[in-house]
Amino acid sequence: MTRFVPAADRHQVALLTDCLDDYVTQDNPARVVDAFVDDTDLAALGFAGVTPTATGRPGYHPATLTLLKLYLYGYLNQIPSSRRLEREASCNVEPIWLTGRLAPDFKTIADFRRENGDALRATCRHFVMLCRQVGLLAGGVVAVDGSRFKAVNTRDRNFTPAAVRRRIEQVETSIVRYLAALDTADRQEAEVTELRTPRLKERLSALRDRLRALQAMETLVEAAPDRQISLTDPDARAMATNGKGTGLVGYNVQAAVDTKHHLVVAHEVTNVGHDRTQLANIAGQAQAAAGEEAIQVLADRGYFSGEEILACDRAEIVVTLPKPMTSGAKAEGRFGKQDFVYQASDDTYRCPGDQTLTYRFESIENGMTLRRYWTSACPTCPIKNLCTPAEQRRVTRWEHEHVLEAVQRRLDETPNAMRDRRQTVEHVFGTIESAAAICGCPAAASWHWWASLCAAAVGRRVWHRAPARSEPGHRPAGGSSERSGQGGEASARRRCGARKQDRGSRNIGSSGSDAPADRSSEGRRVADDSDYGPIC
Question: Where would you tag: which of 5, 32, 34, 145 has the fewest CB atoms within 10 A of its CB?
Answer without folding.
Answer: 5
